[in-house]
Amino acid sequence: MSRLPLVSAETADAEQADLLTEVQRQLGRVPNLYAGMANSPATLRAYLAMRDALTRGKLSARVREQLALLVASENGCDYCVAAHTMRAGRMGFTDAAIAATRDARADDPHAEAVLRFASTVMRTRGRVDDAAIAAARAHGVGDAELSEIVGHIALNTLSNYFNHVAEPELDFPPAAPAKGPAMTPNWRPARNVTLVEGYTLLDGDGRPVRTIDDVEVRIEGGFLHIRIPNTPTVQTVSAPAVSLITFAES
């Protein structure tokens, strides 16, 4: 059951009704994501406007769909992974191509360069190095496309995070679980956790470190929770900030 009410034609005020009518016109129905987002007409209007603007960019519809699927997978949004898996299938993507997209891979070199750059942006929270930009450009990714990739990450992260908060009921065919959310609700022992450059954790002595050893971890909602055994403090980082987790049983 959704944690936020789903606005319907029967419960909507005039402003909400206009927005839901526009969603119905664009999509042929009102998915629960949009019905939940309509609790704030300002949020739904902003989301629709940004999505509409980005459809007029340089990136093709197929690549935009691949980006949406990749971002949803990285952010651990099962709702959006299901929605974009269905959309990708309708666009002619095979099951293998959909699985590859979720790992930032594609048969087309340009599309793969876009996905790899997007994955790097998310993993580093935008702090990409010159080599990442050069690698994308080497495969024909132009400056406008680089800008749009960031825009699509922002757009899809908005819907992903909204779903984490609202938890609307899934009204798309279920897909394989997303990578980010935690399919591990219990604490698990880890030999070490390493963050990407620029991010730190506090070790048992309170010192900032990129790698912390002998901890317990829990992955939930696109975030990694870390605690040092026998201490009450839990540290939390977003999944893109994590470079490597080595579990104790591996």
From TrEMBL:
<dbReference type="InterPro" id="IPR003779">
    <property type="entry name" value="CMD-like"/>
</dbReference>
<feature type="domain" description="Carboxymuconolactone decarboxylase-like">
    <location>
        <begin position="41"/>
        <end position="117"/>
    </location>
</feature>
<dbReference type="GO" id="GO:0051920">
    <property type="term" value="F:peroxiredoxin activity"/>
</dbReference>
<dbReference type="InterPro" id="IPR004675">
    <property type="entry name" value="AhpD_core"/>
</dbReference>
<dbReference type="InterPro" id="IPR029032">
    <property type="entry name" value="AhpD-like"/>
</dbReference>
<protein>
    <submittedName>
        <fullName>Putative peroxidase-related enzyme</fullName>
    </submittedName>
</protein>
<keyword id="KW-0560">Oxidoreductase</keyword>
<keyword id="KW-0575">Peroxidase</keyword>
<dbReference type="Pfam" id="PF02627">
    <property type="entry name" value="CMD"/>
</dbReference>
